[in-house]
Design a protein that fits this description.
By secondary structure, this protein is mainly β. The chain has 2 domains: about 80 residues, RNA polymerase Rpb7-like, N-terminal domain (Dna Ligase, domain 1), CATH 3.30.1490; about 100 residues, Nucleic acid-binding proteins (OB fold (Dihydrolipoamide Acetyltransferase, E2P), Beta Barrel). About 10% of the residues lie in helices and about 45% in strands. It is built from 2 helices and 14 strands. The strands form 3 sheets. Strands 1, 2, 3, 4 and 5 form a 5-stranded antiparallel beta sheet that branches. A 5-stranded mixed β-barrel has the order 6-7-8-13-12. It is elongated, with a radius of gyration of 26 Å. The mean pLDDT is about 85. It is found in: Cytoplasm. Part of the RNA polymerase complex. Forms a stalk with Rpo4 that extends from the main structure. Keywords: Cytoplasm, DNA-directed RNA polymerase, Nucleotidyltransferase, Transcription, Transferase. This is DNA-directed RNA polymerase subunit Rpo7.
Length: about 210
């Protein structure tokens, strides 16, 4: 059985936020959370991975003033929901784009590259206009919207927004489109009909 590790986590972080007077129409906490959302959500860090959303924050009620700046600066500790992809993790996702060189698969908040060479051993043809990749011998197909299971083989996390690169493979047992996996499971359980054994000859020709 394949094991899944949870790549989502709640991470505790801290910062100092600048809160201008125009942001103080609501509570201090609400203003700080909104500023944190604008700064951190959809950002990428090599330490925590993809920041999906800010879930909560505690704001110091005592702020500091800077000469010539009408805003106040407050220390905050906050919780962020993050997604950190790890090598060899098994993930499930949805094909969102077909290209000449493979497919992009949405896993969590980002897209991973499934190269043609990592889909199957069969010869593959990519039809970008039709949004489909078809295997020559088995006629198996991947298309936009296909649900797949894959293993992460490459992770490169930079800083900022949209700087991460993730590579995945389906060239292992029980990986690939979910319907392919069901076919493999049926074969493993003897789901395919077996040819009937030839009748044995009776001794003496009778």
């Amino acid at each position: 059985m394949l094991a899944y590790n949870i790549m989502f986590a709640i991470v505790h972080m801290s910062d100092v936020v600048r809160i201008p007077p125009s942001r103080l129409t609501n509570s201090l906490k609400d203003a700080a959370i909104q500023i944190l959302k604008e700064k951190y959500e959809s950002m990428l860090s090599p330490d925590v991975g993809y920041v999906v959303m800010i879930t909560d924050a505690e704001v110091s009620s005592t702020g500091k003033l800077v000469a010539g700046d009408g805003a106040t600066y407050h220390k905050v500790t906050f919780k962020a929901l993050t997604f950190y992809p790890k090598l060899q993790e098994v993930v499930e996702g949805e094909v969102v784009e077909i290209t000449d060189f493979g497919a992009f698969v949405r896993i969590g908040p980002t897209d991973a590259l499934l190269h043609l060479s990592q889909i199957t051993d069969d010869y593959l043809k990519s039809d970008v206009k039709q949004g489909v990749i078809v295997a020559n011998q088995s006629s198996r197909a991947l298309k936009i919207g296909s649900k797949i299971r894959a293993r992460i083989t490459a992770v490169s996390l930079g800083k900022g927004a949209g700087m991460g690169k993730i590579g995945i493979t389906c060239r292992q047992p029980f990986l690939g489109a979910l319907e392919w996996i069901q076919e493999e499971i049926k074969k493993g359980k003897g789901g395919e009909a077996k040819p009937a054994a030839a009748p044995k000859e009776k001794k003496g020709g009778k």
